[in-house]
Amino acid sequence: MDYTEIRGEAVNESIYNKRLNNGLEVFFMPKKGYSKQYAIFATKFGSNDLKFKKLHDKEVIEVPEGIAHFLEHKLFEEPNGNAFDRFAPLGANVNAYTNFNITAYYFTSTDNFYENLKNLIEFVQQPYFTDENVEKEKGIITQEIKMYQDNPQWRVIFNFLKAMYHQHPVRKDIAGTVESIGKTTKEDLYKCFNTFYHPSNMILLVSGDLKKEEVFSRVEEFFDDEKPMEPAKLVRYYPDEPSHVKNQYIEDNLYVSTPMFYLGYKRIPKAAEENQISLLKEEAMLKILLDMIFHKATDLYQGLYNEGLIDQSFYADYVCEPDYGHSIISGESKDPQRVKETINKWILSLKKNGLKEEDFIRVKRKQIGENISHYNSIEYVGNTFASYHFKNLNFLDYINILKAVRFEEVQQQLKNHFNEERQVLSIIKPLDRSSNIDN
């Protein structure tokens, strides 16, 4: 069997890899002793992919916002029912998600694994779009969009992104708008499917207590993988994004009891990001730094909490993609502006006085331990592996990069990233109910 082993010594895990004749990369991560099996079938196609063409085509295709999510919905529909109906009798749970960069379909099972795997591959690779079922789906997705618009957590996030980015499609709602969904046609869906659901633009990862030889042979059988296929060579177009933020402040009103906020800093993409490992290292450094400043054990957190300015919902994270990135500090607060002012003063003090190396050592050790524990979840590994793979990164490398991060590098990130000119604050305030009482 012609496969290669990707070894992660630091976590004592292996992933086996084989590229099929059709271009699909298949990965298998053995989990001996696990009763659960898992498979994820993912494509490098997300809500950001609105303008593209095949490499040798002259025509540049532009599609309506939200089409990747629309396509995810429609692939579950089949001529004689719904793909969900295939899995339930076999005791499997199947689902899917669309984010800014990928669409993924996955299932978990404890039995009938290969039958479930065949079902997954078949329904994702066999679209069934008609004018009638597309029109019907528009009503369903429109209701979903309206529901999102009334969701404070969703609104505070996307207001944050709209304020931070001028042109980049990450500022657009993953589900699209009522108007864009209304414009979507059966032909648009087939164009996207035929472009992005080519096996060479996809990966399949399987995990569980299974035999690797059987995994690869069964997958080849399911794809009838005999004749080589021309790989999908795509050109994706994204607008130039200024380094400064669009708006530093944005607020909205919804039915919430306590204001919600998203505070963050825009990352400046590097001039040349060919070395994807530098992207992974930046992510590791910023996650350590955010943990050092905002974790529940820090003096900053305790001070804000004791003043009643934040609660247990407070957290920080970092998003790092080749063409965009930002930090996130989020939570609920009776006074988000005071939270922002306190954070800004704290960071100015840290820039002046420096971080504590003992805090760095402690946080880094903690994150190494958390990263190792994540490998107990085959769902987490599958989702994260797919996300990293489409950035030309190997998730198994992350822990080694995390271990290699030096204190001086994190100190430098403190100076570089936390720039108040690239800061955005998004707030959802409580709606004045009295002003909405019908006369």
From TrEMBL:
Q: Which Gene3D superfamilies match?
A: Metalloenzyme, LuxS/M16 peptidase-like
* Chain ranges of the Peptidase M16 C-terminal domain: 185-365
Q: Which organism is it from?
A: Alkaliphilus pronyensis
Q: Which residues cross the membrane?
A: none
UniProt protein name: Insulinase family protein
Which is one Pfam family of this protein?
Answer: Peptidase_M16
Give all residue intervals belonging to the Peptidase M16 N-terminal domain. Answer: 65-177
Alphabetical list of PANTHER family matching this protein: METALLOPROTEASE (PTHR11851), ZINC-DEPENDENT PROTEASE (PTHR11851:SF134)
| Gene Ontology MF, one | metal ion binding
NCBIfam families found in the cross-reference section: YfmH_fam
